[in-house]
Design a protein that fits this description.
469 residues, Rossmann fold, 9-stranded mixed sheet, 16 helices, 18 strands, globular, binds adenosine-5'-diphosphate, binds alpha-D-glucopyranose
Length: 469
C-alpha cells in the first residue's frame, strides 16, 4: 500500500510537540511492515534543511484569491529518515524559522494544503491513501472531493488523525474564495457555526477519522469546543488508535543524549548516575525524589497550576522533594515558575526554551514525571518516561487515562488523580513521596514500567487495518 502523510511537523525536521514525533516515526514503522509511506510537510527553515541534500521534484503555481503563489516541492535525496520526505517551499510564506505563531498562519496553512493538492494532481499514479494530520491539513479531503480542478483525485481515500481538537483552523467565510474553485452547493461541508472550520470539514469529508487514544475520542463526543454533535453524528467512522513511541530514538540502552546508558538490569545504577548529573547541574540533593515536567507551558497542560501546586506540596508536612521544569509558553506561567525557583532555591529549578538533549537527560535522571493536563489527546511524555524507568504522576484524562493505572489499583504502576487543581496535584506529589520512601515497592514499579510495551508495532498495524477498511 502507498500512503502519503501530510503534516505541518515531522521529527527531526521540525518539531513543536508530539505531532512531529508521530509523523517522524509512524511512516518508518509502516515501511517496515512492507508498505510505502511518504511524508510531505512545509519547508521550514530549520537546521535539518541545511544539513541534508535536496533535489527539486516539482514546481508549480496557483492563485489563492488574488494572490499568485509559486511553490517548489523538494525531496530529501538520501532518504535519511527511512522514508521519502518531501517539503513544500513557498518563498516568504513557509520558509521560516518557527513552525507556528505568525500573524499569517491561516494563509500558510491554506497555501501549504493547496500546494500539496496541486502537486498530487500531477502525479502519474495515485497513492492508495492520503493521511492528513490535524487542522492544518484537514481541508485536503474537501478539496480532493469538491474542487473542480482535482476531480480526478476524488476517489483517493483520506484519513484524518486528530492529535489535538483544541485547535480547529477557523476561517471567516470571506476566505471561501481562496480555496481553489469549488462546488458551492457543498458549502455545508466547510461550515460549522457560520465559519469555515477546517477540522470540522475534515471530520465530514475524510473517509475515516481517528484520535490518538480511544479515551480522547470518547471525550470529544462529550465536549470538543462545539464539535461534539458533529463527532456524535459521524461516530460510525470515528475511532481511537493509541500512539506508539519510537523505540529507536527513545531507548535508555542506546540513547546518545544521556550521560549513562542503562537497561532494566542495571536501571538503579544507571538512573542514579543520570540523576546525579541533573542534581549537580540544578543544585539539588540526590537523596530527594526528583519530579520533572517537560512540555508546552500552556493551559491544556495545566502548566499554570505547576507553581502553586508545587509550592503547596512543599508546605505539606514531611515534603522534601526537587522539581525541575523544561518548557516554554505563556509568559505569565514562565514568570510564576521563575518566582517558584527563586523562592525555593535548592528545591525547584526551571529551564525555559526547547532543549531536546536536556529532555532526554530528564527522562533518564528523574524519579517521577508530573502531567496534570487539562486536555491530553495521547501524551507521549508519560510513555517516554516509563521506558526510562520514571514513574508517571498524571491526571486521568485522554490518553493519560489509557496508559497509566494507579499503583494502588489492580496491575497498576503509576499515580493518577482526577482534577486539574492545585490540591489534587499537591496530594499526588505527596503520594509519590510516600511511594519513593517505600524503596522496595518503588524499585519494583520502576522495573515494571520499563517492561511495558509502547512500541509503534501494534499501532502501525492498526493504521493499516484502518486504511484497508
Ligand atoms: P504535545 O504534543 O501536546 O506537546 P506530547 O506529550 O505528545 O505533547 O509530546 C511532547 C513532545 O515534545 C515530547 O517529545 C517532549 O519531550 C517534547 N517537548 C515538549 N517541550 C519540550 C521542550 N521544551 N524541550 C524539549 N522537548 C520538548
Ligand atoms: C498532540 C497532543 C498530544 C499527543 C500528540 C501526538 O500535540 O496534545 O497529547 O500525544 O499530539 O499525537
Amino acid at each position: 500500500m502507498e500512503i502519503l502523510h501530510v503534516s505541518f511537523e515531522c521529527y527531526p525536521v521540525a518539531k513543536v510537540g508530539g505531532l512531529a514525533d508521530v509523523v517522524g516515526a509512524l511512516p518508518r514503522y509502516q515501511q517496515q511492515l512492507g508498505h510505502i509511506a511518504k511524508v510531505v510537510m512545509p519547508m521550514h527553515r530549520t537546521k535539518f534543511l541545511y544539513e541534508h541534500e535536496w533535489e527539486v521534484v516539482h514546481k508549480g503555481s496557483f492563485k489563492m484569491g488574488k494572490r499568485a503563489i509559486d511553490f517548489t516541492i523538494i525531496k530529501e535525496t538520501n532518504n535519511s529518515l527511512g522514508f521519502d520526505l518531501y517539503c513544500v517551499d513557498i518563498y516568504g510564506l513557509l520558509d521560516r524559522e518557527k513552525v507556528y505563531n505568525y500573524d499569517d498562519d491561516t494563509d500558510r496553512f491554506l497555501a501549504f494544503q493547496i500546494s500539496v493538492t496541486e502537486w498530487l494532481a500531477q502525479w502519474h499514479h495515485h497513492p492508495d491513501v492520503i493521511h492528513v494530520h490535524d487542522h492544518h491539513t484537514a481541508l485536503i479531503p474537501f478539496m480532493l472531493q469538491h474542487c473542480f480542478g482535482y476531480c480526478h483525485l476524488a476517489q483517493i481515500p483520506t484519513i484524518l488523525t486528530i492529535h489535538n481538537g483544541e485547535y480547529q483552523g477557523w476561517m471567516s467565510w470571506q476566505r471561501g474564495g481562496e480555496i481553489p474553485a469549488w462546488d458551492t452547493w457543498n458549502w455545508g461541508l466547510l461550515d460549522w457555526d457560520d465559519t469555515i472550520n477546517s477540522l470540522a470539514s475534515g471530520i465530514k469529508c475524510a473517509y475515516r477519522v481517528n484520535t490518538v487514544s480511544s479515551n480522547y475520542m470518547t471525550e470529544l463526543m462529550e465536549s470538543s469546543k462545539g464539535l461534539q454533535h458533529l463527532f456524535q453524528m459521524e461516530a460510525a467512522k470515528c475511532s481511537g488508535i493509541l500512539n506508539g513511541i519510537d523505540y529507536e530514538v527513545w531507548n535508555p540502552e542506546t540513547d546518545t543524549l544521556i550521560l549513562d546508558n542503562y537497561s532494566i538490569k542495571d536501571v538503579n545504577q544507571g538512573k542514579n548516575l543520570n540523576k546525579k548529573k541533573l542534581c549537580d547541574d540544578y543544585g539539588f540533593e540526590t537523596t530527594k525524589p526528583l519530579f520533572i515536567f517537560i512540555g508546552r507551558l500552556v493551559g491544556e497542560k495545566a502548566a499554570d497550576l505547576l507553581a502553586p501546586a508545587v509550592s503547596e506540596a512543599l508546605n505539606l508536612p514531611n515534603a522534601d522533594f526537587n522539581f525541575l521544569v523544561l518548557g516554554s509558553g505563556e509568559k505569565s506561567t514562565e514568570a510564576a515558575l521563575d518566582q517558584l525557583k527563586d523562592a525555593h532555591v535548592g528545591f525547584c529549578n526551571a529551564q525555559f526554551g526547547y532543549n531536546e538533549k536536556l529532555s532526554h537527560q530528564m527522562y533518564a535522571g528523574a524519579d517521577f514525571i508530573l502531567m496534570p493536563s487539562r486536555v491530553e489527546p495521547c501524551g507521549l511524555n508519560q510513555m517516554y518516561a516509563m521506558r526510562y524507568g520514571t514513574i508517571p504522576v498524571v491526571r486521568k484524562t485522554g490518553g493519560l487515562a489509557d496508559t497509566v493505572i494507579d499503583y494502588e489499583d489492580e496491575n497498576g504502576y503509576g499515580i493518577t488523580f482526577l482534577q486539574a487543581s492545585v490540591n489534587d496535584i499537591a496530594q499526588a506529589i505527596h503520594r509519590s513521596i510516600i511511594l519513593y520512601r517505600n524503596k522496595s515497592k518503588f524499585l519494583e514499579l520502576r522495573k515494571l514500567i520499563m517492561k511495558l510495551d509502547w512500541s509503534w508495532e501494534k499501532s502501525a498495524i492498526k493504521y493499516i487495518e484502518l486504511y484497508t477498511k
